[in-house]
TrEMBL record:
<dbReference type="GO" id="GO:0009055">
    <property type="term" value="F:electron transfer activity"/>
</dbReference>
<dbReference type="InterPro" id="IPR008254">
    <property type="entry name" value="Flavodoxin/NO_synth"/>
</dbReference>
<keyword id="KW-0285">Flavoprotein</keyword>
<feature type="domain" description="Flavodoxin-like">
    <location>
        <begin position="6"/>
        <end position="170"/>
    </location>
</feature>
<dbReference type="InterPro" id="IPR029039">
    <property type="entry name" value="Flavoprotein-like_sf"/>
</dbReference>
<comment type="function">
    <text>Low-potential electron donor to a number of redox enzymes.</text>
</comment>
<dbReference type="InterPro" id="IPR010086">
    <property type="entry name" value="Flavodoxin_lc"/>
</dbReference>
<dbReference type="InterPro" id="IPR050619">
    <property type="entry name" value="Flavodoxin"/>
</dbReference>
<keyword id="KW-0288">FMN</keyword>
<comment type="similarity">
    <text>Belongs to the flavodoxin family.</text>
</comment>
<protein>
    <recommendedName>
        <fullName>Flavodoxin</fullName>
    </recommendedName>
</protein>
<dbReference type="GO" id="GO:0010181">
    <property type="term" value="F:FMN binding"/>
</dbReference>
<dbReference type="Pfam" id="PF00258">
    <property type="entry name" value="Flavodoxin_1"/>
</dbReference>
<keyword id="KW-0249">Electron transport</keyword>
<keyword id="KW-0813">Transport</keyword>
Length: 178
């Protein structure tokens, strides 16, 4: 089956990750490509295998906890085959309220997807954030595995971060496809 282009899939409890997802998709569509948007609770996870590029969004809840709809399908995620898929992650969190667990769920999602052989794109610098620890910093504290968005403490930076990140993703994906 021919691969469709891009899907953005989010889970959310209070809609921030959905709203940010729509902004990311809009930004991408301004570059000329359509993005299919889904709530993870409304789809079969096998559908993730139908796309060449996936943008996956997850908020962190309750001291490093995983948004429940993502957590429910965690084991299934590891069984997917995403060998030819570029995957970009974004995570929502609150760096001052939960600075020891900032956007931890994004790190969890990365760990769950490692066995799928996906190609991860979209690492993002931790410069400009203040936090103690994050599971989403995979090697050191210099970079997150994906885009960290803080609607609670730094909402004024969200649009600019999204704009820069989407341009970065677009370029990284082109390199992967070459
Ligand atoms: C009770 C509670 C627990 C939270 N726990 C964390 C946490 O451990 N780490 C973090 O980075 N953010 C935490 N947050 C912040 C949320 O991730 C943040 O508000 C996010 O934007 C919610 O996204 P959603 O609206 O898509 O569910 C917590 C918020 C609340 C109210």
């Amino acid at each position: 089956m021919a691969q469709a282009s891009i899907a953005l899939i989010y889970g959310t409890d209070t809609n921030n990750t959905e709203e940010v997802g729509h902004k990311i998709a809009k930004q991408w569509e301004e570059l000329g490509e359509q993005v299919d948007i889904f709530n993870i609770k409304d789809i079969e996870i096998s559908q993730l295998q139908e796309y060449a590029t996936l943008i996956l969004g997850v908020p962190t809840w309750d001291f490093g906890g995983i948004q429940s709809d993502w957590e429910d399908i965690g084991d299934g995620l590891s069984e997917l085959s995403l060998e030819n898929t570029s995957v970009a992650l974004y995570g929502l969190g609150d760096q001052f309220g939960y600075g020891d667990y900032f956007v931890d769920a994004m790190g969890w999602l990365y760990e769950k997807l490692l066995p799928t052989k996906a190609t991860f794109i979209g690492q993002w610098s931790t410069a400009g954030y203040e936090f103690e620890a994050s599971r989403a910093c995979i090697e050191d504290k210099e970079n997150f595995i994906g885009l960290a968005i803080d609607e609670d403490q730094q909402f004024e930076l969200t649009d600019e971060r999204i704009e820069q990140w989407v341009i970065q993703l677009y370029a990284e994906r082109a390199v992967e496809a070459a």
